[in-house]
Amino acid sequence: MVGRSKEQEQEIIDWIEAVLGEKLPGQPYEDLLRDGIILCKLINKIAPGSVNKIQTSGGSFKLMENIQRFQTALKKYGVPDEEIFQTADLYERRNIPQVTLCLYALSRLTQKHPEYTGPRLGPKMAEKNEREFTEEQLRAHEGHIGLQAGFNKGASQAGVGAFGNTRHM
């Protein structure tokens, strides 16, 4: 399990506040997100109408429904399954770094949705990485023998013996 990063958690809180346009209560990170209300509001700001019913009160089950609705909305938005945390990761505080990773993934994905023009978090996603090489650079490797080309510096399989034979020590 990856350790928690207070800096990353603060960065996410700042980003959520920027997206929602409101200051969040000064609670610990995991307590702030635990009931799923802020997460549902966040995805609704990013992709309006993603979560149509947010439970603001009720027992654990009702609040866990918020987290599940948020997760469903993330999948629909395009966050890969392996980057989405499990409900228990957040609700039972089992794996808070996974929650952080998931929110970074969501923020990164907003770059692929031109309809979202709100604040973003972290580095910009690379779109294309074209490289230009000169003829000279392209030819430079021609005299080089790669190790996968069969050159083995004199090593051979002599003495290995036939298949199926036992080794004699």
What features would you describe in this structure?
This protein is an all-alpha fold and 169 residues long. Helix content is 43%, strand content 0%. It has 7 helices and no strands. The protein has helices at 6-20, 29-34, 37-46, 60-77, 87-91, 96-109, 135-139. The longest helix is centred in the middle third of the chain and has 18 residues, at 60-77. The mean pLDDT is 86.
Residue-averaged pLDDT: 86
Question: Could you say which overall geometry the principal axes of the C-alpha atoms support?
Answer: extended
Note the gap between the termini.
Answer: 45 Å
Counting H and I runs of at least 4 residues, what is the number of helices?
Answer: 7
Using the CA coordinates, give the radius of gyration.
Answer: 26 Å
What percent of the residues sit in helical stretches (DSSP H or I)? 40-55%
H and E string: HHHHHHH
Total strands: 0
Structural class: mainly alpha
What is the strand content?
under 5%
Poorly predicted residue ranges: none
Largest sheet: none
Question: What would you say about this model in short?
Answer:
With 169 residues, this protein is mainly alpha-helical.
Keyword list:
single chain, 169 residues, mainly alpha, 7 helices, 43% helix, 0% strand, extended
Could you outline the blueprint of secondary structure elements for this entry?
Elements: H1 6-20, H2 29-34, H3 37-46, H4 60-77, H5 87-91, H6 96-109, H7 135-139
Helix pairs in contact: 3-4
